[in-house]
Amino acid sequence: MLSVSSVRSAKGAAGYFAADNYYTTGEAETSGEWFGKGAAALGLEGKVDKDRFEALLEGRLPDGTQVGLPDRHRAGMDLTFSLPKSWSLLALVGGDRRILDAYKEAVTDTLRWAESRAAETRMEVKGKERVVATGNLVTALFEHDTSRAQDPQAHLHAVIANVTQGPDGKWRALHNEKLWSLNTLLNSIAMTGFRERVEALGYEIGDRTKHGNFEAAGIGRNLVMAFSTRRQHILAKVAEMGSRTPEAFAAATLMTRPTKTAAVDRVVLYAAWRQSAKDAGLDLPSMIAAADVRRQAVPTGWSKLARAIGSAAERASTVIDVLRERLGLAPADPYLPRASNRMEPAQAAAAHAVASALRHLEQREAAFAKTAIYKAALDTGLPVRIEAVERRVEALTRAGQLVAGRRTEMITTAQALETERRMLAEVDVGRGNGAVYVPGETAIDRLTGTAKARSGIILNPGQSAAGAMILASPDRIVAIQGVAGAGKSSVLAPAAEIIRAGGREVLGLAVQNTLVQMLQRETGIASMTVARFLKSHDKLLGPTPDRSALADARQSLGGAAVLVDEASMLSNPDQLKLVRLANLIGVGRMAFVGDARQLGAVDAGKPFSVMQQAGAPTAQMSQNLRARGEAIKVAAAAAQIGAVDRAMEALAPFTIEAPGRGSTEAAERWLALPPGERSHTAIYASGRRLRGEVNQAVQAGLIARGEIGPGSMNLTVLERVSVTNEELRRSQSYEVGMIVEISRPQVGQRLPRARATVEKVDHRTGTVTLRLSGGRERSLRPDKLRIRHGESPLQLYEPKALTLHEKDRIRWTANDHQRGLFNADQATVVAIDGRRVLVETSQGQTVSLTRGDPMLQRLDLAYALNAHMAQGLTSDRGIAVMETRDTRLVNQQTFLVTVTRLRDALTLVVDRAGQLERQLLRAPGGKASALETSGELRGARNSNATKTSGPTPPERTLDHDQGRSKPYEIGI
Question: Are 356 and 377 in contact (CB under 8 A)?
Fold first, then answer.
């Protein structure tokens, strides 16, 4: 594991790092060793002198030169590389110091790579300050062997001084942003190098976890915990506190943190460790001896591959056969070389690792950082080195399978580019081929008259233009770009009424069932999910459309209007399928309606934004009609254009700082409201973790107040594990106790369509043992799974204990269309007895679920929602809780969705307001586009349609004009 931190104090760091080491106390003044080209350039070699080390951290070079200002110079950064606990036990307690040498070699190799790729400084180039590469670091490397609790914990501190030599020979401060960003990749590089070395020593690899980490085979978690005194202290404190929330763990960590002892009697300490191992039944000498025997044996299977990669004389064809078996990649895979049997084993392994990495990455993003490919390739567990992976990525770039970004460090794929090009080509095919439902000169009058007659609404200019585009555009495929709260449904309802009055069908589509229901309920438009629509027309999406299915589709939808709501949430593959079907069937209009600045799809792409930037016929709706409270008006408008500082300033009077207890604070504030106000006050959380904590806290508070119950039922519910299709083909994605749903029989593996429990995972052979519902055991080889049309036959779930009470608010996590239970829709528990749970759905229907009903496993509490659940919903008031440690979840997009859900007021609960603002400024969020990355998407195409604005979405001005005579919230 690698952790990165700033070195706060030069003097304190010099004493700390030098004092705790493998050497005797008398050698503490010169315990570390210098490392790096920068150190060599300064004449620093061999052991680290404490005084020189301290001077460098203060910015003073050996010749007396001062880098930066003495009172403002930052000392540097500490990269702490820690061995997984099982390896520390073998090395320190078992006495196999070769493991320590192997890890140190792997770490120093990693530091050399980091030095060559990530050492940077700021300097003036042609009159402008730029970040330039330097290729040198000044590093002091210290070996430590204990944790704070004096447990065996081998780790190396690579303390990088804040100095580097620029290309002009001048020493400057280090620009360390890239080093910080590469921390997980650096760990993967180190663990890959370590794995190669310990396997050469005869050791077998056990459980693998994130970022390339792995334990030694034969040392289970219970034995690891026996030597984790620190962890036991934390768990004891958490139990004493009576809470197992992340805040409780964080608090317990600080409360139990001991002062680190620098000098200890190593002889006594090591003897105590050996006795503890003996008491725990851990026979480390036997494990080391067994490794020595394996080291001398003839390698077979996967170990043979690892050994073969080190020998250029080994035939590559054998290696490739093993690789294909292991990864399940087809020979025709576009990321694999056609003549791979001519490659050396190391090249073949790198080719397969990169192909697997790209399959994983491209499911979620249309473009990604090159370093993300490196990390994903190393984390496959294949015996490859970073240099071989880099060479393979460069080879794919030269071949055109990968395309480097024009102005960024991002990279995209030829397939992603082709998908977006085809999507835009289909938009062009639809130009001039749409249905003019109402002549352009009368469209606005007809629309505004119908809206006023239906609901007494006076449409504003943006709404009128959007409705006119739906009714009168000559183009088949159009975009309606509307900011959150723009009143899109106020336009869709009268437009649909006019189209139907002319004898044409109108169909609504949305990505989520909750949005489908809302669209149908508030506009009267018959609607379904995008997935269901595409599934019903899958016979048309192949290379040769089925003639009979095509005739039926044209009969039912030819000339119809298809309105796609919350279109920003569409992925590239789904958008391409929709526009293909629009042209193939001959619909009169396919209008994509949404806000390009709001949350995108889970999977790759942001096609709604791309089609607008490329010049698709677009109408703009820029007025937020939802917000009524002054602070919300300002915050929503500012967030819409990315002005985070203005939004946070507007919300400052309503922002509560609650470090370490955000979820509790949010729950208590909601519980303090009168019951009548709670129904109009939503709770929003930045992610799954916080959402779960708030739900638990609210439920506990309602129980204490006697507001829910008395009937209750203990359930085990299933939480979906978010993994890509490629990750599902790796054994490390599976854990004992997980639930596996097999939706498509795997005949070759004798697996029926069923639900099974993971009984055992063997990472060495890549085998997962499943127990089916009838008790039978079956073996699953995840690497043999075949993904059809992007759909995996498996889905993973984690079981979670949940106690359900009468009057609890719940949401469904799966669909049961027959009973009207839809994924993400909410319901209320009406009654519970020993045999059944009675619920009332959002549609007012009462459904009885007997104990054992599968839908009782597919629910969760719904007192709090996260951003993806909230998009498209509205409430009068809200309480939002955000914590900056959720770095991947707290960004401008989730912030925008949160603040634009509300009409009147928002209370924002954060850990640190200033820190949250800085994080939001750094993290715009959003999906990547292949065409944007490659630089191909540079300007708008000519459009035959009259457009209300240019192609750059979204609206960039603040506008609070209500634009109509009375408030009307449709809720889309």
Answer: yes
* Nearest residue to 436 (alpha-carbon basis) of 483, 502, 523: 502
Determine contact, residues 189/179, Cβ cutoff 8 Å: no
Q: How far is CA 530 from CA 76, 279, 544, 550, 807, in A?
A: 51, 60, 22, 18, 33
The amino acid present at 172, given as its one-letter code, is R
One-letter identity of residue 341: N
Q: Residue 290's pLDDT band (boundaries 50, 70, 90)?
A: very high
**Structure tokens belonging to residue 962:** 């209500």
Whether the per-residue pLDDT at 300 is higher than 90: the answer is: no
Q: What's the whole-number mean pLDDT along residues 562-584?
A: 96
| pLDDT-based confidence at residue 601 (cuts at 50, 70, 90) | confident
**Residue of higher predicted confidence among 564 and 270:** 564
In the predicted structure, residue 20 carries a pLDDT above the cut 90: no
SS3 30: helix
Q: What sign results for the dihedral spanned by CA atoms 576, 582, 588, 590?
A: negative
Nearest to 170 by CA among 121, 130, 112, 114: 121
For residue 557, the model assigns a pLDDT of 96
Distance CA 382, CA 900 (A): 46
- Amino acid 103 reads Y
pLDDT band (50, 70, 90) for residue 959 = very low
The separation between CA 860 and the C-alpha centre of its own chain, rounded to angstroms, equals 21
Residue 859: helix, strand or coil by DSSP? strand
Does residue 315 have a pLDDT over 70?
no
Write the DSSP assignment of 734-767 as a string of letters: --TT-EEEE-S-BGGGTB-SEEEEEEEEETTTTE
The pLDDT of residue 968 is: 20
What does each C-alpha distance from 616 to 429, 430, 435, 504, 569 come to in angstroms?
11, 10, 16, 24, 18
Spatial CA neighbour of 191 closest among 382, 327, 387, 1? 1
What span, in angstroms and rounded, lies between the C-alpha atoms of 625 and 569? Answer: 22
Burial of 49 (0-12, 13-18, 19+ CB in 10 A): middle
Written as six digits, the tokens of 532 are: 């269901």
**Strand, coil or helix: what is 878?**
strand
Two tokens at 758?
């993971």
**CA dist 571 to 138, 366, 420, 574, Å?**
45, 10, 11, 5
Instruction: Identify the band that residue 91 occupies on the pLDDT scale cut at 50, 70 and 90.
Output: very high
H/E segment holding residue 323 = helix 316-327
How many whole angstroms separate alpha carbon 789 and alpha carbon 482?
32
How far apart are the two ends of the chain, measured CA to CA in Å? 45
Alpha-carbon torsion (201, 205, 210, 212), positive or negative? positive
Tens of pLDDT, residues 337-362: 876 667 777 888 899 899 999 999 99
Sequence-distant (6+) residues with CB within 8 A of 170 are: 123
Question: How far from 109 is each of 25, 35, 84, 122, 465, CA to CA, in Å?
Answer: 29, 11, 18, 26, 61
Give residue 706's region: left, alpha or beta (phi > 0; psi -120 to 50).
left
